[in-house]
Amino acid sequence: MTSPNLNMRDPAVYRIKKASHHRTADKWCIYPMYDFAHGLEDSIEKITHSICTLEFEDHRPLYDWFLEKLGVFHPQQIEFARLNLTYTVMSKRKLKQLVDEKLVFGWDDPRMPTVAGLRRRGYTPESIRNFCETIGVAKRASTVDIALLEHCLREDLNKRSPRLMAVLKPLKVTITNYPDNQVEQMEAVNNPEDESAGSRLIPFSKTVYIEQDDFMENPPKKYFRLSPGKEIRLKHAYYIKCEEVVKDEKTGEITELLCTYDPKSRGGWTDDGRKVRGTSHWVSAQHALDAEVRLYGHLFTKPEPDDAPEGETFLSNINPDSSEILKNCKVEPSLMDYPSGSFFQFLRQGYFSKDKDSKKDKLVFNRSVSLKDTWAKIKKK
Asked: With contact defined as beta carbons under 8 Å apart, do 374 and 147 qualify?
């Protein structure tokens, strides 16, 4: 009772409760307390080093005392600071609350910091290991910027991801001077960071899709993408020039662009050496596959989710816009051949992973991380 450590003052070893247990019924009435069970289980399982978070530091003397008095194999308990990330919660109790209240899709929701969630979002084991090595093991509690975790993923995927083309918000482009029934195969490098990745062929035809954001009818100065009378380069293909804009008669929305192409610009350059500054990714309308693309952001609006107004909980900081589902996307046909869990860089879009919900008639992709690297800018500053 004179010990300066509160945990050593007449500690409870076990409790007796004569009640029916939900699993073992009436077989037992003695239940060990955590401090007693912890060391004994480690000893029985021949754990050499029991790694715990900092709140167990004051419990270590009792852990050691039980094992010494029992005269059994004695593991070593070591404490370290738990990992906390901005814009998320790591408490299992709070994560369970998110699942139980259906604020996320489940334990493997790509916004969850669980192994299942990270795997489904497209995080690789290598990127997570690199992240852990970068932050190291600390003895002081701190919160790590989630931008560092995203930076580690980008670094890994940049080296290994094939570069493919996907149009998330399609705009139809008809090339009026291109032969009606002609289909060409355009060669594309799979990964400029990895020569061994080789190349692939992408079909090109009279009608293609480009991103809606890659066209502006009344562009400002220094706008280098497609606009009436202007020319852009289609990646791996030809130069095209916008000749006419087709709009819906009722809504006035742009439904199609009528363009011409330069047959001598195949591959992205011409003999006359004229400069075309804008480049767009595309997919052939005839060959494109339908896809659903799920864009994920931070699960919470604040870096510290527990920073809630008095009387409220972390749930008040849930981000209602942390998930956006795009249903009418178009992707190149080669994506059908990849199994679920495969990762890619969609050109100019970000890094994506093929989801387990994918079917033959509709592929599903999760955005793992955008191309923008916040952490790299922080490091530079």
From this structure: yes
